[in-house]
Amino acid sequence: MTRHAEHVMGTVFSFDVRHDDAEPYVAEAVAWLHHVDEVFSTYRPDSPVSRLGRGEITLAGCPPEVADILRMCESVSDRSRGYFTAYPGGRLDPSAIVKGWAVDRASAMLREAGAPDHCVNGGGDVRLSGAAAPGRSWRVGVAHPLRPGDLAAVVSGNDLAVATSGTAERGAHVIDPHTGRPATELASVTVVGPDLALADAYATAALAMGGAARDWVEGLDGYEAFAVTAAGATWRTSGL
Given phi > 0 = left and psi -120 to 50 = alpha, else beta, which region is 222? Predict the structure, then answer.
């Protein structure tokens, strides 16, 4: 078993790899995460995304993954009727999809290196791969946004992505692009599905939608959601 925690992209990424001697593979995945931070960080004034947002360079002058991410953002924006945007508050910031995308790639690197049984957690957005132990699924606790220290739900699975967007740690930081105001109807939304980049983006869009999110997620192929409202009530989609 190999475990590692790395502070990068403004949060902590943790690796739980159920294989011995996986340190070199984890080190490669960690290097990838730092590369992503260098390219996409909106807190680094010299990052390509920061420079692109200020108009100092064009998309052609950025690493190719920037165009890939912006295409993904545009696709999710269309799918979510504009509730997801790469320009929250009018400023280029694709962070709501980048973290999940980076974790997905880190997980793929571990699988390709021969370590398929692992959990990668990027600040609460989790990629589960393989099994926690022979015949045993992974279990992920979803923190309750209104009761610190409590769990709102537990998700169990093998090859699965779990992403949560909420107000517990950063307050009402997700903006409803249609009103320009913080989204406050839901305290948190957890989206479960096969792809963490999309689950991450869908969770952000769902939080911005508020009560309309339940029917919207019901229409997404392969994804389910669990939510806690600002009043403390809960709901979940039919397949969860």
Answer: left
DSSP letters along 69-99, please? HHHHHHHHHHHTTTSS-S-GGGS---HHHHH
User: pTM of the predicted model, to two decimals?
Assistant: 0.92
pLDDT tens figures, 169-178: 665 577 778 8
